[in-house]
Amino acid sequence: MTVQSSLSLSDWNWAVLMLHQALVGAISPNVRMIELAFEESRWIVRVTLRTDDLQDREEIDDACDAMGAYLEDVHSKLSQDAYSKIVSDVVVSADPLDPSGGLESRVVFMAREN
Length: 114
Description:
four-stranded mixed sheet; Alpha-Beta Plaits; 27% strand
């Protein structure tokens, strides 16, 4: 059994909800996609940006910190595996979006592109 499969649907739902809360007001027009993945006993917030921007990177780090605080509030509703470290992974790319990149993940935000 892999670590990913040990997470329940409830764990995933709580994590996605807490990330949504953390992202309120943090998504700039430069953000193309945000995914939440779970790998090696940690949550990974993978963000694809159009161009590299320090302010966007800071907002993403702040959102990860906020997500951690929100998960603390619902700690009793999560499995032990789901109560894990949260890290950001920023990708700068103009290539067509490819959700999941091979990991078990959930798309939390995807910008409309023509």
